[in-house]
Give the backbone structure.
Amino acid sequence: MKSLRILAWGSVGLALTVVVLGAWVRLSHAGLGCPDWPGCYGEITWPDTSEEITVANEAYPDRPVSIPKAWKEMLHRYVAGSLMLLVYAIAFLTYRRRQELPGAFPLALGIAALITLQAAFGMWTVTLKLLPLVVTAHLLGGMATFSLLVWQALRLKPTAGDGTGSRPGAASLRGPLIAGLVLLVGQIALGGWTSSNYAALACTEFPTCNGEWWPEPDFAEGFTLAREIGVDYEGGVLDYSARVAIHTAHRIGAVVVTAWMLLLCFLLATRGRVSAGMVLGSALLLQVALGVANVLGSLPLPVAVAHNGGAALLLAVLVVLLRPPIMRR
C-alpha cells in the first residue's frame, strides 16, 4: 500500500510539472517547435547537426528548425510520456489489488483513459497548428488529469478513525465547494481561450483596458469556437475587438471566481476550519496578484507560467477540501 501511495503522489508531482511545462512551451511560442508528432522533424529527439537541420528544413520549408523551441517541445513530450507510463502502472497495480482496494481500479482506469485522450490532443495541437479550441481542450484535459490524480492520491491516504475522511462542516460546505470548483474550471477555460487566441495583451492596463472601462468588445467573433482547419494559428488571427472581448470576459470571470472563493474562505472560517480558509485565501491572493502582474508587466514569461501553476494550485486546494472517502479496508 505504501509503494502505491508513493507512486500516486509521484504522479501528482509529475502531472503538475507537465502542466507547468505545457504553459512554458505555449507561452514561449514553442508549441510548433516540432511540426510533426510524436517525433521532431522525423527525429526521436530533434535535429541538432547541420546535416539534420538541412534535411529538416527541406522537409518542412514553412517551419524552419529552431533548436531552442524544438527541445522545449520535446522535453514536454518526454515528461508527459513518462507521466502516461506512470498512470498506466498505477492502473495495473490497482487492478491487481482490486479486492483490497474496491473502487481504486475504476478511478485509475478512468485516469488512464483521460491521459490517453490527452496524448491525442497533444498530437492535434501540432497537426492542427494550434487551433484555439484544441489548445484550450488540451489545457483543460491537463488540469483534469492533475485534479483526478490528486483525488486518487487522497483516497489512498491512510487516516485515523473509520477511514471516512470526514471533517467538521464538510457536508454543509460540499455544495458551495463544488460550485467553486465549477466556477474555477470555467475561469481556467477562459484563461486557456485567452492564451490560445493571444489575447492576454489585448489590455495593457489595470483595472481599465487601454484607458477605457468598456472598449467595444466583439464577443461574437471572440467566442466563435469553430475555426477553419489548416490555418496556422500561432500568434493569433483575431482582430483587436475580438481579443479585447476575450480578455474582458477573463477579467469578469476573475471577479466572479474571486468573490466566490472569498465567500468560501468565510464559510470555512465560520465552521471552525480557519486554517483551510487561510490556505484557500492565500492561493487565491497569489493567483490574483499573478494575473495583475501579467497585465502590468506585459506578460513576463516566469509570471505567466506561474499563473498557470497557480490555477492548478487552486484546483488542488478545492479537491483537498472535497476530500473523498479513503479506499481501504
